[in-house]
What does this fold into?
Amino acid sequence: MTLNASTVSAGTALETLRAGWAAQAAGKMTTSWMLHGAPGVGKTQVVGQLAKEIGARLFDLRLTTIEPQDLRGLPYYDHATQKTIWYRPEDLPDDPETPAILFLDELTAAPPMLQPTVYGLLQERRVGTHRLPDSVMVIAAGNSADDGAVAYEMGTALSDRLIHLRVVAAASDWLENYAVPRALHPAVIAFIRSRGDLLDTGETALAKGDIIAATPRSWEKVSQILHTKPDRRLRDVLVAGTVGSAAAAEFALVADEVAASIRIDDLLSADAKSRVALYPAGLNALYGLVYGLVGAFNAERARSVIDLMAEIGRLADLRPEPEFQRLPLAELRTHGFELLIARGLGLGLEDAFLDSPAYTTYAAEREAAGVA
It folds into this structure.
């Protein structure tokens, strides 16, 4: 059967679920949700981010690892009433005062014998005698056989109980809403900015019969690899084993440029005169610097990071190399400040911009140019 639902980015899926939670909290709509998508596109991260935003306790159940009794509970015989009574499992939320998300992951890979029990949770919001409180949002997720994953066909009895979203990886959405806010390694962000087609190579890998594919989840793992600072040879081996040799070969060029050119700690510690010589001249390296500065932004470094971001737009005047005359420095600075402001708002550091002479000058220039 074909999934005839809207295809959305992870960011749009999160926005949709936010609206769903708002409607449920207002008593206007209570339903269950299903996130379809290839492995690694960010379904689990979307649910985790929603739980964090709404202050909900997350009950994460991997349906491939449980049996029906794990949801239904276990019976015992009550001699006084001469009835069989069921002990409810602890993995189901029961606090009516606390928001919670019941996340039924790997639904499509769950064995058929488990599905009747899951039906009750998705439609009637109950299993046995236990009914989920109104404070609980139910979200399921799973892959399809077309994604190369183990999956059972979803029957209409189950499908009818859900609002379906097909989640796909979109480079701009992933960079803006995931990679930059989480301060992934600058080399990863700079690479995906220029090679968004390599964010998710699952379909290509499946067609070629390759085991390894690049996904948003695997690029996050590459970021973790780079943060461990292995030597170049070992780095390339690890990255190839994470995203595949073809993507790793292209990534290595950007990673080398960024590694050789970006010295954020040195820039932050240098005085205004000596740091000018530390700025890299390559476009990929400058993008990497911008993302690195965004990741380094915190209460202690706010003033210095803002100064450096503003200074990027003036490098054509500060450095004699002809490369700086050809680089889109103004656009790069504006892009950097957009990301930096978003991060500052998330950290509650918006006053750092109001108190910064460098940002005040930048904002005045934008206003004078009619682009404020």
User: Anything to note?
Assistant: The longest strand covers residues 136-142.
